[in-house]
């Protein structure tokens, strides 16, 4: 699947920034591809790029409108269809990471045929995955896990890739969600893979590699989230992680979209090790990544210091304070291997 930039990021009328995390993520990590955003009335998200119409985007050389939103169930609201049809009629391609195939909607299929635009359903793949085998494979792997969904797992591994490559380390980001696939150009949306094949898909995403190579695997959901724990567990087994980093948002009390209480970081460390031992008896926690966006700097630094001392691993906000300590720990692990 080749998705042609530059992009117009469609944000619809989402209720908050988290619902627009696909679009915002693309802007954060591939800003050179993002020409503008299209927001409908009532949209409560802003990717920080110019607002423009589809006609404006076409005139600016945009090739693809990316539906940059996520929602429960990955559905396409009916009132967004008009904008997608307009984009196709203007000759743009349309790409989405939702759970519905664009071509399954007659108006969209007809507009694509009429305007000549391509439809890209990133959550769907023609790849046929095997079941996971759990056999030890060479190379090193880091997985991000979370106390909840939408806590920074993708941003953490992308920040790790940037820092590790700057140090001359052999490291690759491995995408397991639609935003990551848009950013990297490769991967699979794990939550759209049939349950029997989740671990096998992750083994395909992060295959056997040179002993010194690091695969930085994007985590999904949480082992404690009643909606997504099954996906998180299959991902953990397929990753065969040598190290994992716990991602956390400190101001939440319940998990996103449900009423269940947020687990503690120690709960996540213990559960991840207990479940991860199945495919890697040497699995270990190598750090904590905290999204401190809602905290003042002094409060954030104090929290990170407390967490690092309590859990005896580096703790940081990857975006605010960098990931040098996390990479130092991984280099130390590699030196002891």
Automatic annotation (TrEMBL):
Q: Which residues form the D-glutamate N-acetyltransferase-like C-terminal domain?
A: 129-327
Q: What Pfam families does this protein's entry cite?
A: DUF1611, DUF1611_N
Entry's InterPro entries?
DgcN-like (IPR011669), DgcN-like_C (IPR035086), DgcN-like_N (IPR035402), P-loop_NTPase (IPR027417)
Report the residue ranges that make up the D-glutamate N-acetyltransferase-like N-terminal domain in this protein. Answer: 40-123
* PANTHER family per record: DUF1611 DOMAIN-CONTAINING PROTEIN, GLL3100 PROTEIN
Name the chain's protein. Answer: DUF1611 domain-containing protein
């Amino acid at each position: 699947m080749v998705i042609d930039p530059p992009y117009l990021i469609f944000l619809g009328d989402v209720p908050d920034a988290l619902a627009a995390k696909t679009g915002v993520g693309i802007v954060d990590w591939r800003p050179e591809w993002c020409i503008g955003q299209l927001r409908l009335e009532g949209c409560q998200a802003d990717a920080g790029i110019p607002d423009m119409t589809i006609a404006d985007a076409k005139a600016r050389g945009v090739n693809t409108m990316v539906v940059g939103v996520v929602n429960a169930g990955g559905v396409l609201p009916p009132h967004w269809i008009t904008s997608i049809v307009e984009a196709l009629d203007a000759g743009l391609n349309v790409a989405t990471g939702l759970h519905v195939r664009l071509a399954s909607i007659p108006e969209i299929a007809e507009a694509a045929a009429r305007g000549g635009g391509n439809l890209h359903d990133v959550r769907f793949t023609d790849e046929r995955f095997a079941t996971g085998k759990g056999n030890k494979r060479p190379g090193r792997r880091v997985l991000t896990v979370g106390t909840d969904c939408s806590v920074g797992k993708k941003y953490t591994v992308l920040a790790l890739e940037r820092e590790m490559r700057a140090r001359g380390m052999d490291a690759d980001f491995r995408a397991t969600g639609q935003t990551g696939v848009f950013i990297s150009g490769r991967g699979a949306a794990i939550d759209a893979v049939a349950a029997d094949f989740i671990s096998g898909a992750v083994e395909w995403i992060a295959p056997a590699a040179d002993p010194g190579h690091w695969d930085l695997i994007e985590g999904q959901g949480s082992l404690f989230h009643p909606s997504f724990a099954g996906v998180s567990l299959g991902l953990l087994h397929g990753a065969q992680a040598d190290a994992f980093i716990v991602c956390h948002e400190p101001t939440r009390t319940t998990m996103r979209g449900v009423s269940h209480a947020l687990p503690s970081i120690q709960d996540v460390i213990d559960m991840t090790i207990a479940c991860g031992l199945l495919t890697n008896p040497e699995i270990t926690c190598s750090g904590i990544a905290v999204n401190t966006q809602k905290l003042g700097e002094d409060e954030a630094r104090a929290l990170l210091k407390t967490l690092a001392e309590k859990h005896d691993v580096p703790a940081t906000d990857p975006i605010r304070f960098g990931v040098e300590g996390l990479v130092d720990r991984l280099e130390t692990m590699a030196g002891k291997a």
